[in-house]
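hey so u asked for the seq, here:
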Amino acid sequence: MQKNNQSDKNDVAKMFDRISSTYDFLNRFFSLGIDRRWRKQAVRKLKLKQGSSFLDCSSGTGDMAIAALRHQPAANAYLADPARSMLTIARRKGHTLTERFRLIQGSAEALPFPDASFDHFMIAFGIRNFANLEAGMRELYRVLKPGGTGVILEFTPDRSRIIDGLFRFYMWSIMRPIGGLISRDKDAYAYLARTVEKFPVVDQLTALFRRIGFSEAESTPLSLGVASRFILKKQ
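ran it, structure tokens below
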């Protein structure tokens, strides 16, 4: 099982490396820019202070960390992602904002940080790509300081029947073929669509977060339930 998980992690990282050059454009195109609003709202919930340290896990090209630094430029940002090409783009996008911008290639299941390293963590549409969801969340709990908070944005299948039908149609009939065409990687966008469909519902996720040890795990639906925001706290 461990070998399979490692193989899966490597395959997903390679996939994101392949689509990295078109990733930001397609995100803006498919979401009509709504994902930017979700990120801005999410980082405000963390109430970042001057000198706060945060980990953007599965950071991709760094949009969540950049939103946080625009909100609080004096924070200390650490970005971790298994895809090197994504981090290269993140470095290019973030270096003009602050010197407090550090990038680490690595997966959520094995974070290279001591216990209680960060005041906050954030993940934007990344936990469904964890090879082992519980192991990744346990690592995030470990590196979070007591009293710290985390925010997660993710697509969850807790939608009304009408919204879910529209979302699935959009995902499979529009996003998948257009994303595959523009990125020249149809398998990648089929994979992304499948991970959204198979992901746990909100109640299952909050139960997992509490079982790991988070003292609070609050969820909020976004844009008629298209996505969900989770706020997690560690005592």
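The first strand starts at residue 53 and ends at 57. The chain has eight helices and seven strands.
lmk if thats what u needed
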